[in-house]
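As promised in the previous annual report, we have extended the structural survey to additional targets. Below is the entry for diguanylate cyclase.
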Amino acid sequence: MKLRLKSSLALLMLIIAVVPAAIVGGLLLKQQSDVEENYRIDMLNRLSHTIEQEFDYRFSLLSTSLDVLSRDRLFVQAIDNFFLAGHVNNSLGTLVRNTPLIQAAYLVDDQWNEIENYNGIYGLSSFFKLENSFTPRISQHNKKGKQWVFYYNDEDLMPLKFNPTRRGIIVGVPIFQSMTNGLKRKPLGYLIVVVPIKNIIKVLQPYLKDGELVVFTNNPKGGDNKLDDKNNIIISQGVINKLTPTINKIINIKLENKYISEPIEYTMAVYIDKYIGKSPYINSLKYITIFGVIIIFLSLFSAGMIYRWIARPLGGLMEIVRAYSRGEYKCSDEELRFTEFVMVERLIRTMSKTIQAQVADLAVTNSELNAAYLEKEQANLQLVNFNDQLERKVKEKTLALSHSLLREKNQRSMLQSLLAFSHDLQAGNIIETIMTQVVALYPMAGWAMRTYVDNNNVWVCENIYKVDLDVKEVLPENHRGDYYCLPDGEKYLHCFKIKNSQNDVIGVIVMQYMELQHDDFEIISLFIRQFATELEGRLLNEELARIAVTDSLTGLANRKAFDINLEEHIQLFNRYPERHFGLFILDVNGLKRANDCYGHSMGDTLLIETSRLLVETCRLTDKVYRLGGDEFAIIVEAGNCDSCDVLWHRLEKVRAQINYACLPDGKRVEINFAIGYASTYQYSAEQISLVADKAMYKDKRYFYEKMGIKR
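The corresponding C-alpha cell record, generated without further manual editing, is:
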C-alpha cells in the first residue's frame, strides 16, 4: 500500500505534537492518583469507625432499656396478675417505640406461655426453641441476671410485614421476683425482644453515601463476605454496581456490654468506590488537554505552511484529473511547479483524446440497446398487471366463500353449546363454566366478568388486561341500558349487565371484540340470561344453607352446626390422637325467672348479651354455639388441659364481674351462667360431652344452693 504525501505529512506532525503531551500527562496523572488513593483510605477508616461506634451504642442503649424494664415492679407483678396486662402492653409499646432496633416484644411466664406481646404473633411456637437454649444457661448463671443474645434465621417471630427477611437477633432477659445479689432464684418469666435485620439496616443506613456498602457476617471463624449470601446483613445507600472497583476494610465487632452474658461476634466489611467520580483521570486530563491542544495547534500551523508549498501543485494536478474524469477537457491555469507534474499532465491530455473517440462509439450502441429494453419492459408490465387483477378477483371470491362457511360452522357450534351450557352451569363452578364457554365460542375475543355477590368485586379475565377495565365508563351503574359499547382502540368493549329476577344488577360481562353482528348479540344475551338465572338460584341455596346452621336470635351457630362440628372433631381426634380439643357446656341461670318477671323480651336480651360475652371471652379459633333454650356450648381448638383451664379462668372472671341485660325502659337482670367442661386430654372423645354436661349441672346446683333459690 502506497502512502499519500498529504496524509503522511499530517501523520508525522501529529506524532511530533502528541508524544510530548502524553509524557507530561502521564506524570500529572500519577500524582493525581496518589493523592486520591490516600484520601479514599482516610474516608474508609472514618466510615468504619463511625459504623462500629453506632452499632455498639445502639445495642448498649437496647440492653440498658431492657435492664430498666425488667426491674419495673408493676411489670414483674403483671406476670401473675391479669389486671396489669394493660400496663405490660403499654410498657412493651413504649420500649418498641423508643428503641429503634426493636420491632416486637414478648412477655412469657416461667413455663414459656405467652402473657402479652407488642407487634408479635399470638401463640408463637418458636418459643420452644428459645426455651431449650435459654433455660440451661439461666440455671447456671442465675446469680447474674444477665441478658442473652441469639441469632435467628428463617423463623416467624413477628408478622411478615415487619420482617420480610425473617432474620435478625433475639435478646432475652430473665425477670426475677427479687434482684438481691447472692440469692438463688428462679425466674418468674422472660422478656423477649426481636431485632429484625430491617431495623439494623434502617439505623445504620443514614451514615452511608451513594456507592458505599457495609456487610455484617455472623461467622466467628471469619468467612467470606459475599453480597449474595442471605445470612449476611447488607447495608447500602443508592444503587450498587458490582462492576465498579472498590476498596474495603474488614474489622471484627463484638456485640458486648455489661448486661450481655455471651456476646455475638460479627465480621464487618466496609466497601467504598475506589475512585472519586467516574474516573481518576478527569481532573488530570483537563491539564493534559490544554497543554496538548497548544502543542498540536502550533504543530498543525507549521504543517499547514509546509503543506501549502508542497501540496498546492499536487492539488492542481489532481484537479486536472478530476476534470477529465467528469468529461471536462479544458486546460488548467494552475502552475504545477514541478517537472514531473507537467509530464503527467501532458500524458493525461493524450489519453483523453483517445477516450473521447471510444465514448462516442459506445453512446450510439447504448442508445440502440435502451430502445429495445424499453419495449420489452412495457410488454412485461402489461402481463404483470393482468396477473395481479386475476389473482385479486380469485382471492375476493375465495375469502367471501370462506367467511360464509365459517359463519355457518360457528352458528352450528354455538347452538350445540347452548344445549350443553345449562347442564354445565348446574354441575360445576359457574364463573369457570361461563368463561370457558364464551372463550370457546369466541377465541379471538377478550373476556372479563365481575360479580357483586359476597362483596366479590374482582375481575376474572381471559385474553384482556385488567388495566383496560379500570375506567369509570365500564361500571354498569354509569349506564341505563342492559347493553352498552365503549371504544377501545381498533376494537370495542361490549358490556352486558347480569340481572336477577328483581331486575337488580348482580354482575357484568365485558367482551373486547370488533363490532357485533345481530346473531352474535342474540347468542351472548341468551348465555347471560341462563347465567343470571343459575347464579340467583345458587345464591338462594347458599343463604338457605347458612340459615339452617345459624341461631336466628343470637347469630351464633345452632345445634345442627354443633353436632356436625363435634362429630368432625371426634373423627379428627380418632385419626390423629395428638390433636386434642375441649368442650364447654354452659347454661344461663335465671332465664325462666327473667321471662316470668319481665317478659320474653328480657329473656331474649339476656340470651343475646350472654352470647356476646362468650364470644368476646373466647379466642378467635374457638367456636361458640347456642344449643337451644338457655344452653350454650364452646368447642376449644388445641384444647389440652392448660388451654381449657385458661378459658375457664377467663369465664370465671367474666362471671365474677357484674354484667346486666337491660331493656330500654331501664329494667335489668344480672347475667350469670353455669359452666362445665372436659378435654380429650383426660377423657375419650365419646365421653367429654357427658362429662362436661354433668359438670355444668353440678355448677348450676351449687349456684342455686348458694343463692338460696329453689328450682
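The mean pLDDT is 80. DSSP finds 14 helices and 20 strands in the chain. These points will be discussed at the next consortium meeting with the crystallography subgroup.
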